[in-house]
Amino acid sequence: MTQLISNAPFLNRVYDEAMALLIETRNYIAYQERKDADGLPPEVRLIISQETLRMTSRLTQAMAWLLAQKAVQTGEVDARDTLVQEMTVNGEAVCLDDSRTDDDRLPAAVRSLLARTRSLYVRVHRLDRMMRPAA
User: Fold this and answer.
1) Would you list the domain boundaries of the chain?
2) Closest to 102 (Cα-Cα) out of 92, 87, 94, 112
3) Mean pLDDT taken over the chain
């Protein structure tokens, strides 16, 4: 199953989507987050900070897995080597939490990025689980 997923045409599309989302999230955090947080109560600014870290965690997990699959695609890594525990998509407790996605106190851009990074993480997590032999 590992080889099928690593060679599937959709892998490049998922990778491209992840890269675009990574850049968009980075740009938001670097250039817009502070402006959006100005004037908000301290507890809401703290929540924004926490949720941008959650986005970063999701993107880190997804990109690490996708880069490993790209390495399989190009022959740099054997597909079996990606089945080790260190290459598993982890962080479910943090990355699957969507309790703030609909929090109206957060700027719309944060809510949108939260929803989209979670969706990406869920898809990559599912692909990772599909590739692993049943325990």
Assistant:
1) 2-131
2) 112
3) 91
The pLDDT tens digits for 73-96 are: 888 988 888 888 788 899 999 999
Measured between alpha carbons, how far is 22 from 61 in angstroms, rounded to an integer?
11
Q: How far is CA 84 from CA 51, 54, 64, 128, in A?
A: 29, 24, 13, 11
Query: Rounded to an integer, what distance in angstroms lies between the CA atom of residue 59 and that of residue 124?
Result: 10
| H/E stretch holding 76 | none
pTM for this entry: 0.90
CA distance 111 to 100: 7
Unique residue bearing structure tokens 């079996």: 80
Q: pLDDT, tens digit, for every residue of 99-115?
A: 999 999 999 999 999 99
Structural contact between residues 48 and 37, judged by C-beta atoms closer than 8 angstroms: yes
| 75: alpha, beta or left? (left if phi > 0; alpha if psi -120 to 50) | left
How far apart are the C-alpha atoms of 43 and 102, rounded to whole Å? 16
Assign domain 2-131 to its CATH superfamily. Answer: Protein of unknown function DUF1465 (1.10.8.930)
